Amino acid sequence: MSLRVGVVGAGAFGRGIAQASVRQGHDVVLWSRQDRELPDPIRASTDIADMRDRELIFLAVPARHAVDVAEQLGEAVDGRHSIVHVSRGLIGAELQTITQVIREKTVCRRLGALAGPLVADALAEGRPSGAILGTGFPELTDLVREALGGAGLRIYETRDVVGVELASATVGFLTVVLAYAQEVGVGPSTLAVLATRGMVEVSRIGQTLGAKESTFMGLAGLGDLIAAVAGDHRPEFRLGRALAQGAKLTSAVGEAGAYVEGIEVARHLMEHARRLGLPTPISSTFVAVTEGGMSSEAAIEALMERQVGKE
Amino acid sequence: MFKRFLSERPLRLPHIKPYVPRPSDPSIFWFNSERDDIVSEVVNRICTAHESDRGLLEVALNDAAFHEIRRLEKQRDEEARDRLGYWRSMIRHIGKMDDTEQRRVLHAIVTTMTRDVAGNFDPRVYRFARRAVPRLIGGVMEPRRLMAAAPELLERVLKVEGDLEHLRQLQSEGSLVFVPTHSSNLDSIVLSQALEISGLPPTIYGAGKNLFTNPIISFFMHNLGAYRVDRRIRVSLYKDILKLYSQVMIERGYHSLFFPAGTRSRSGMIERRLKLGLLGSAVEAFTTNQVRRVDRPVWFVPTTINYALVLEAETLVKDWLMEEGQARYIIEDDEFSQIDRWFAFFRKMVGMRGACIIRFGEPIDPFGNRVGPGGQSLTPTGRTIDPGGYVEQRGKPVVDAVRDAAYTRELGEVLGQRFEQDTVLMSTQVVAHVLFRDLVQSTPGMDLFARLRLRGEIGLDREALHQELGEARDRLVALEAKGRVRTSEVVKEDTPAELLERALSFWNGYHDSTAATLEGERVVLGDPALLLYYQNRLVPFAEDIASPEQLQAACEIEKLGVHR
């Protein structure tokens, strides 16, 4: 039975989802602010009310637009709808997740966060890939598998929604750190230590916000980070390299070619950790490098000098 | 023997001239005529769910026998002598029973347990209690005026806040489920009075069987619609019965009350982690009615019960600090069972203005949405939506236990937030917070337990304290303006000096230990554990009401609530 799928946002990811859905034979409407040409049979719309008769809606807008778009969407949806977002960001100093925003701005409760090493191209072209869906509603997992699925896409499920969202948001930041380290000539072994300890650092903070450690070590966290380092051409990676080559943060962000939320997220996470007295050696050192002008040599030295503890 | 007889078989009034309910009476007045029907509906639904699968049936019987034998062996009382033989013999024969025999045994066990749970409602007892309880409380204060001014006294002690008119409108349109915070065993009594003086209907509620050990309380509770919950019984069938009983009652339109935190807050903190069992039963009641096309909505009323003085404060905080909350889930030897403490407590409460505030929050539907005056579910911008949509799959309402469990978790989250927003901070809590924060600030690096040993060792300048109190109060009032929390009238109106004196006079003379004393121009901290208990109500707001110098101490206090 064909599903009525809605996609909000016409970025690469939104279009990838729409293409994957039509390939599965579903009826797809894609909403964006501006009128767009879309390949048949995807229907383009600029009227959010067109989401009203959709069963499953994918929200594929950057985190900084999420509040605005969720508010508009709130006028079109009700308890019948299911919404899944694919954003990698968090909102504000309160580290509000996108599902929390959707819950606040709409009356939808069947919500999910789709994350992990899934990239737009793979979705659009139907290449084998995998993802993780954080949701409290198993029926939603079935819907998403039906909408995007097919033999080539493995969608795993977890109830730890906040864990998926936090892991996904912090991978962006860790990607910048690793790209930076790689560019300044750090070897594979040191990179591995940075990646692993970085993940431990963010997972410790995540746990205070209700996330599970295991989620950080799964597809939403380490899995996604491996994809980023293996070279899936993320803007965060370009940003890290540009910073290592001596660019200032603002111009490096421009060079990366997309708005990168990772640095902002890291700053807010550090502030939260500071309030709770949690150590954040890697995040703090990196912010000192990008904003305080600390040299890469001094940064590595500062990290290496720290006392070694238990894993 | 007599006591046990009463607790096993609560007394009922003889059926001479029974009350015939009028159509305008609240739903619970019809309970007695429906009681048998409700019991058999619960029994049938439970048995049907188990009978279709022999494996499931056998597991249920084995589980019941195993847990009951374990409980009774531990109890070693008369009940054990009566029942242990039955269960031991049963567990030996389960495997040999044929299907019919197993079903018969299941039916018998479920029927006995459901009958034990089901309450009673006697309108005569209800009418008597309506008049008697305020007078009893008044009588404690001034025995000579036992019959005269009691209702006014009660009104002075108990203040009810909230949009009562809205709730009164909703009561005839669907089932109201009151979900209050839980600090004291007095809560259900205080809340029934609050419903009564607000013109709201009486509710059914589950009360721990331990509360039925006092024959007088047992009589009233049993005849006022309370159903009995024996927390010692670990049998999974029993848990199913409790949930289903609550669900069937809500499905049938009975207004209901349960404490979603499950037990009294040991720490004094506002509850965040709620037990979802009974909450889920109300959500499932909504779904079942939708599937059966019965148009009877269910609304939740988040309610906060705010005491300036908590009857059992000392026992509760001790229990929290011992970190044995789980082991002592049922406390039977606290202040609630000591009649002299009741007297001391009520004398103190009646003597002070605004000692207890019940706040009925804005009602919400099972999915956390606001509810309009006519009972319609509303979006944040005020658009009306159909709550039935939440239980639809591909256009049809369906029962889906896993989905409803997810809705229940979400509802639990919403209630946790609403408890915070609707908490009314009382004088003692604000004063305790400022005193405890000073204690933390003056003992940097010390751990909690070391701080709790500092009895009578920390003295604070009274003037400086007044200033801190004034600042903390102003910041709380600013938070109130943003809708984060509420403060009582006395907190808003008192001068800082009055606030301090008010809190001290609440504590001193009631609690065994002294929270703090005035010594000339100094305020000396007495028992930090008592201060900790009262100040814990402010844990979520500690950082917001601290000055930059107090921030470090406030963060430490806020950390206490991480696992709340």
Task: Describe the fold and architecture.
The complex is a heterodimer of chains A (311) and B (564). Chain A has 311 residues and is an alpha/beta fold. In chain A, 53% of the residues lie in helices and 13% in strands. Chain A contains 14 helices and 8 strands. Chain A has an 8-stranded mixed sheet, with helices on both faces. In chain A, strand 7 (129-135), helix 5 and strand 8 form a beta-alpha-beta unit. The radius of gyration of chain A is 19 Å and the shape is globular. Chain B folds into 3 domains: 2-117, no CATH class; 158-203 and 255-422, no CATH class; 424-559, no CATH class. In chain B, 51% of the residues lie in helices and 11% in strands. In chain B, strand 16 (516-519) and strand 17 form a beta hairpin. In chain B, helix 16 (427-441) crosses helix 22 (551-559). Chain B is globular. The chains are: A alpha/beta (311), B alpha/beta (564). The interface between A and B is medium-sized, with 22 and 29 residues.
Write a concise keyword list for the protein shown above.
heterodimer, A: 311 residues, alpha/beta, Rossmann fold, N-(1-d-carboxylethyl)-l-norvaline Dehydrogenase, domain 2, 2 domains, 8-stranded mixed β-sheet, 14 helices, 8 strands, globular, B: 564 residues, 3 domains, 7-stranded mixed β-sheet, 3-stranded antiparallel β-sheet, 51% helix, 11% strand
